[in-house]
Structures are given as structure tokens and as C-alpha cells.
Amino acid sequence: MKVGIVGLGYVGLPLGVAFAEVGHEVIGLDTDARRIAAVGEGASYIEDVSSERLRAVSDRLRATGRYADLSKAEAVVIAVPTPLTRNREPDLGALVSSGTSLAGVLQEGQLIVLESTTYPGTTRERLVPLLEESGLAAGTGFNVAFSPERVDPGRTDYTLRNTPKVIGGLTPECLQRAVELYRPVCDEIVEVSTLEAAELTKLLENVFRSVNIAMVNELAMLCDRMGIDVWEVVEAAATKPYGFMRFDPGPGMGGHCLPVDPFYLAWKAREYDTPTEFIELAGEVNQNMPYFCVEKVSRALNEHAKPVRGSRVAVLGVSYKTGVGDLRESPAIKIMRLLRARGADLVYSDDFVPELPDFGLRTESLGSALTDCDVAIIVTAHPGLDVQRVLQQAPLVVDFRGVTRGIEAQNLVRL
Question: Would you say the CATH fold of 208-414 matches that of 2-193?
């Protein structure tokens, strides 16, 4: 089978490699010429796909910037970004652009699957009309399905292969076509009755996490006021063998889903005059955590007779999660902007993020970043972070990830 993938990012490239590994011919489309060149050279830019894996399927996977190259594909999967606008509303620009372009090359009998996270109704109300500009009718002239991506970048225990794949189709025939597409690369398929059920499934998964993270973040702020160690409380509560699921506090949420999905659902709910106040509040609490973290740094410096302005702040870890270089919605970036606005002199150390052009900074070694710093803040604790060295070399350490639990030091402040 010939399969097309629109968008060669954290979702699209691993999916394309998986299809190629089971013998399909894959055409990956992207608007970024650097990604196209990298795929052609067998040089992976995604942590979840090694360059060795990419080179191993080089005869079955090629990248292009031309939608016309997708006209011969039997199935096309859309995996483009669906971020938020500055006003925290859905930004479907990339999806609309790809749908419009696909309509120009759509062939009878093709299967189009949307994987991008979005609100219920997007596939039926936004994508299908765009594709029908081709003159073909959805459900008869071509097939449509929605199957939410469940990628957790950097994770190795749950991958595309062993994570159940949820699929909803426009018609029963559309669903069956999509099931046949994914079955060779997914061990378990979960069929749902409608496109909207599949779309909402993904939002529920991430809203669940958002709400629980917001709750424990709010508890962390309360514990700060009360002088209670939130980490001790969380660890004690987690010993309960039933009725409790552990979530850890942190500097905020990042990535392509968790910070975005609650606002997608809340935006759609307003169309039905049903305010989702609980869900929106969770999103707002998590959005405000970087501000709380900056205040925590400011108070810590003040206790050491230092103002934020002019202080050298070493930021340890700037990606949104451990073990990856993904900066999407990273709370570290917001913390850095807020600190710079207060006059802090910033340096950072992150082996996964070589540079931050918006700040005019390049990563430094841990030792270099800690040299002459006034405070080191642990925002993302990548594997191998030498916590003891940080505590020994930095005059003040603020830990937002709880990696110093069990350590007592005069220069240490925890979330």
C-alpha cells in the first residue's frame, strides 16, 4: 500500500517510519525544507526515531513538499499542528491549508485520516467540506476517519505499536478502511461509533490529566503559604492502594496537547451554551504556574539579599519534559521571559536544546551555567542531571521538579 503523511513532526515521522517498516511505501509531506532534506539524508530530528531506523526504511519512505505526490496514495494521514491563538482559541490554520491542498489532488476511493488533536465536530464540519471541494462526496467518493494520536515524546514503554488505537469513521465503510490501515502497526484497535466520539476521547484523556495536575499545582501554592512540604504530602497520599492516582506538581504544563486541549473543549462547549468552568479553571491554574515560580525565585533571592534585576539565573532544562528537546508550550520559556522582563541575566543548560534564538542564547555545560550564578532553577530535570553538583556549586537552588526530595541544604528551596 502507498500511504501519505501530511506533517513530519513528532506524530507524522514515527507514523511514517512504522508504516514503512511493515512494507508500505510512504510519502511524507512537510512545508519545512529542512525536514524534507533530513529525511532524504536519513538524519532523524525526532527523539522517538533513531537515524538508524530512518535509514533502514529509506527505500520505502521519502519526503516531499508537493501535494501532487500524494495523488497516488491509497490513504493519507493528516498530522499537522493544531495550536492555540494568542487569545487561547483553536488555530486550525495548518489543518485548513492541508485540507484545501488535498482537495486539489484527491482521488476517488482514497482514505483521509485526521490525527491532529481538535474539538468534536472538526472532521465533519471543517475538513470534510474542504475535501468535497474536489467534487467527490465524503463517504462514497472517498473515505474519512479520525484517529487521535497518543504520542508521548521520549516514552519507550508505550509506543504506537502497543498503545490502543482509537478510530471513528464517517461511515461504517470509512471506519473499516481506517482499521485496515492501522492494524499492521497497532496491536489493539478501539472502534468508536462516530468521528466526534473519537475526537472527544482524546480531549477527555488530556483534560483528565490537566485537571489533576492543576489540582496538585494549586495544592503546591497552598502548601507554600502554609509551610508544608507538598512533596511529602503527595508521596504519603500515593501510598493509598485505591482511590488515588498520583500527580506531581511542577512549573506548568507543556507539549502539544495538555496545555491546549482544555481550551479546545471549552471553546466548543460555548457553542452549546454549556460553560465548562471546571475545565477552564484547570487550564488557567496551569497557565499561571510560571508566574508563581517566578515569584518563588524572587522571594528566594530576596532571602539572600539579592534582587532579581542583575542576578545571574541559571535555568536547568528548558524543554517541556525530560529526555526530549520539544519546546512547545514549555513553561521554562515563559519563566525565562518573565525573569528577563524583571532584569535577570539568563543562562541555560539543556543537552536537548542547543539554542534559543528568541533569547539570543546557546546552551552551556552544567558547570559553565553554574559558574558565578546567583541562583540555579531546576525547571526540567533531564536524565543524568547531577543534582549534588548543582547544590554544591550554586549559592542558591530552586527546585520546581522535586528531584531534591530527601536532601536538606541551606541553599535549597523546593516548590
Answer: yes
- As a whole number of angstroms, the distance between CA 290 and CA 260 comes to 16
Long-range CB contact pairs, 336-340, < 8 A, 24+: 338/290, 338/291, 338/294, 339/294, 339/297, 339/308, 339/313
Residue 345 β-bridge partners: 312
What is the predicted pLDDT for the residue at 255?
76
Closest among 241, 245, 253 to 288, alpha carbons compared:
253
Q: Which amino acid is at 213?
A: I
What's phi and psi for 29, nearest 5 deg?
-110, 135
Fold adopted by 208-414: Rossmann fold (3.40.50)
Per-residue pLDDT for 77 more than 80? yes
CB 44 within 8 A of CB 50: yes
pLDDT, tens digit, 9 for 90 and up, residues 348-382? 999 999 999 999 999 999 999 999 999 999 999 99
Would you list the domain boundaries of the chain? 2-193, 208-414
Pairing mode, strands 143-146 and 111-114 = parallel
pTM of the model: 0.90
**Phi-psi sector, 121: left (phi>0), alpha (psi -120 to 50), beta:** left
| C-alpha cell at position 99 | 485540507
Question: Which grid cell is 114?
Answer: 485526521
CA angle 399, 403, 405 (to 5 degrees): 95
Q: What is the mean pLDDT of the chain?
A: 95
Residue 6 near residue 80 (C-beta atoms within 8 A)? yes
Please name the residues in contact with 344: beta carbons below 8 A apart, sequence gap of 6 or more: 308, 309, 310, 311, 312, 313
Torsions phi, psi for 413 (to 5 deg): -125, 130
Greatest alpha-carbon span in the chain: 72
Q: What phi-psi label fits residue 66: left (phi over 0), alpha (psi between -120 and 50 degrees) or beta?
A: beta
Give catalytic residues, as residue numbers. Answer: 257
Look at the domain 2-193 and name its fold.
Rossmann fold (3.40.50)
